């Protein structure tokens, strides 16, 4: 008890000492506080969660499997949200006023007067950034609330798939009111292509027609307001997607949380992949923040990303320690939605949602690989977790039974088998497929690399995620510029 | 099913038809939608709530008392929150752009260009109002989340009393960043009093010292930025409360939800008093909105109040129909906190929190009357609900036993008895107090007006609330100006 209080006060002291005029250091200090709070609260509230029925047994362990608390992601999410509230004055006021606690009264008064004048002139105070920040937190809080409802009421799959879209409403609405950039950069090979400009004009007319339709029904218009997300001397060709940009953002906010929710079932994997993704995001952000030659808008949006991701990393690391093999708590859908939405928000408000998709490639592959089972083209058992073998304590791929083979299911399985993307068990006499390894990349890893212990499996998947992420950062800034004819990150000195 | 869909589409149609350029009519239409959604969702989700243990028996009914779903306020609160998301583009964009769905493309373009220019010049777009609005919703969502946690985990009294303060953090922080008005009007009798100005300077020095202390610890300064909440030609004497203004706002946000939570236990009372309070707020707001001679700031803050209160009225009326005698659902602490916080937010952001306290006088009296029992000066049984008599079906006052009379408890009870504010049962021989009616205004009503049926009792309490509210509006604009030397509402034509 005493040591925790000491730790907490030390970290609060650390904020006060290192905070002045550096948002990055402030969020690091907040992140440490978030880690300490989450780490100390989880063991205290666990029994209460078990008591009201938020509990589950770990099936990948030798008996007796005690009941473990579920939905512990709620603690991490709530801590995160209240930290983000606390950050507001430091991010949006202090650095502009820029007085330290050590400055004397006169200096402070002077600073204050300048600041006040700037506020009155509407020059300095970033109200629009504040609205974005608030809408981001609002979206995360909606996600947490809906995730909790899902964990409590076991909402049906086809309903819960769309919950993140509902939760992302405040984000999209504030984006509409406040930001309204709905144009995207067109790859240069499209404009260079002979019929490219013709194609573009067709798309343009279609967008214009759809916008007009929506406007005449709702009275809300869709037009791009600003396009300052490019370096001035490298203006690329843009296309305005209008209403479809909102459909796209909504799709991103649906995909990101659900894809993390699908890649789950191994101790530590949900939180682990989120931590790895957070690290990848930070590497990418600091590529921008440490560069000398980027636009103010790009700088702001990556600083924004750092502000959201660093405290997330803090609370997630605390949760990971309890969720890592052998797990003492489960994180629940609440955490998966929450974590996926953090990335979606950063990608959307930072206007780099395509880069976000690159980082989520393992999740994208896992989703696409799962599609035949998710849509019941191929039979899908209730659980697709790897099978635990109590004798050697290792995880083996789990199998589904192909009881009623159809033309479609047989051919999908055969094609996957030809490329070694699945393990099939065939009837020795007739040669018909009887069983197939469940279609998740978790099972695929076990098929490829053989049975292994749960924590080794998790580490392997996390390593893949990390390597893919790093490769995608390189890809983004080498192949990307070649495709699009420009990059918003340049490393040369001006 | 069909008729509901029809109703819904009709009301959506109604919005589109009547909405242009009138925020009041838009919120009325949203309120209707909120009513319909809440009304149709509650019976559908009730069984799921019972299933996960959110249930209770109504003890004031004849057996068999079936288990009724608890925490149904969650449906109302969630509906309200998503309606408030949907309102954003209508409140913050449409009326400024001010194009209707019927306007032709050229007019729209023209409007749009003007609007765009204004946004670029940072003249027109109310980003600061948007931040306030978002922080209000954020605060309400935090309240709902914490209220749900309270209903789920049965948080201890001394902890849950402060939950609203935690939930109100985003509000206070945005108020600090964005608004920072920390001065209040001083009653003119204080300044007219000979030693008044001396007293003020003492208070001023104390505030300055405390501000300095907080600033030197946290680096955040507390100074009033703007004082445009007064009519220019009637500038009254102001005093800057600095940091104490935030303590005060925090106290308001703690008191308002808890006071509604305490005045409860009769079918329909929690929702009923909220509906009555909402009506009183609206009467007060329209006094301002229909007046010709008020400042822009006063107009804006009362319009803000209407925008928050009208949709709240819609969802509450739907909930009231299920919660009214004989109740089919209970509302839970979630609703009490949520509803109290709506009023606190409106009062705080509208800068009329003192008027809010006037409207809450029945709750204030109930709280003060309850204090001796809440702080265990006088014994407090687990439940202080009125007692149901199954024979005649009426409610009777409930009694507590004075087992260990102390000097303090006996004298409190005797004084209350002298003014007929309590019913005592004494030992016929010794004359010692044995039992006393529990100290809530609900029991007091039963003591004064005799036993009555539950719905009559509720109606009586609501009628008192309504009459007190109306009197307070009159008081506010007659005695208030006399005390403070000015009123921000004047009914004369300029």
TrEMBL record, chains A, B:
Necessary cofactors: Mg(2+)
Record carries keyword Oxidoreductase: no
Membrane-protein topology: Multi-pass membrane protein
Primary localization class, coarse: endoplasmic reticulum
Alphabetically ordered keywords of this record: Endoplasmic reticulum, Glycosyltransferase, Magnesium, Membrane, Metal-binding, Transferase, Transmembrane, Transmembrane helix
Key word Magnesium present: yes
Identification of the protein by name: UDP-N-acetylglucosamine--dolichyl-phosphate N-acetylglucosaminephosphotransferase
């Amino acid at each position: 008890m005493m040591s925790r209080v000491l730790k907490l006060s030390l970290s609060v002291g650390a904020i006060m000492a290192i905070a002045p005029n550096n948002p990055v250091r402030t969020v690091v200090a907040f992140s440490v506080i978030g880690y300490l709070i989450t780490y100390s609260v989880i063991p205290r509230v666990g029994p209460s969660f078990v008591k009201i029925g938020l509990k589950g047994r770990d099936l990948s362990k030798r008996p007796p499997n005690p009941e473990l608390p579920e939905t512990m992601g709620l603690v991490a999410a709530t801590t995160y949200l209240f930290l983000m509230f606390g950050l507001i004055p430091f991010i949006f006021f202090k650095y502009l006023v820029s007085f330290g606690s050590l400055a004397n009264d006169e200096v402070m008064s002077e600073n204050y007067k300048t600041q006040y004048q700037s506020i009155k002139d509407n020059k300095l105070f970033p109200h629009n950034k504040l609205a974005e920040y608030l809408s981001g937190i609002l979206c995360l809080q909606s996600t947490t609330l809906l995730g909790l409802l899902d964990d409590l009421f076991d909402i049906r799959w086809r309903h819960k798939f769309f919950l993140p879209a509902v939760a992302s409403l405040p984000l999209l609405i504030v984006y509409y009111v406040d930001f309204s950039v709905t144009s995207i950069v067109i790859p240069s090979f499209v404009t260079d292509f002979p019929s490219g400009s013709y194609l573009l004009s067709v798309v343009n007319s279609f967008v214009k027609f759809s916008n007009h339709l929506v406007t005449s029904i709702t009275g809300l218009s869709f037009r791009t307001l600003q396009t300052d997300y490019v370096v001035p001397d490298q203006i690329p060709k843009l296309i305005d997607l209008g209403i479809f940009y909102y459909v796209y953002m909504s799709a991103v906010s649906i995909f990101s949380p659900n894809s993390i929710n699908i890649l789950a079932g191994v101790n530590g994997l949900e939180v682990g992949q989120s931590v790895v993704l957070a690290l990848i995001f930070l590497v990418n952000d600091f590529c921008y923040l440490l560069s000398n030659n980027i636009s103010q808008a790009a700088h702001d949006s990556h600083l924004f990303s750092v502000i959201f991701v660093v405290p997330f990393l803090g609370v997630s690391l605390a949760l990971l320690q309890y969720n890592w093999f052998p797990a003492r708590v489960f994180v629940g859908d609440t955490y998966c939605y929450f974590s996926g939405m953090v990335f979606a928000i950063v990608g959307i408000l930072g206007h780099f949602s395509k880069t976000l998709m690159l980082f989520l490639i393992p999740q994208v592959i896992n989703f696409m690989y799962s599609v035949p089972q998710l849509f019941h083209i191929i039979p899908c058992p209730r659980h697709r977790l790897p099978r635990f073998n109590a004798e050697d304590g290792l995880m083996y791929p789990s199998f589904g039974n192909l009881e009623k083979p159809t033309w479609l299911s047989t051919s999908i399985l055969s094609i996957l088998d030809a490329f070694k993307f699945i393990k099939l068990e065939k009837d020795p006499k007739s040669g018909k497929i009887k069983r197939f390894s469940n279609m998740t990349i978790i099972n695929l890893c076990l098929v490829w690399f053989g049975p292994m212990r749960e924590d080794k499996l998790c580490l392997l998947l996390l390593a893949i995620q990390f390597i893919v992420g790093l490769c995608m950062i390189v890809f983004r800034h080498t192949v990307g510029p070649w495709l699009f004819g420009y990059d918003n990150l340049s490393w040369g000195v001006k």
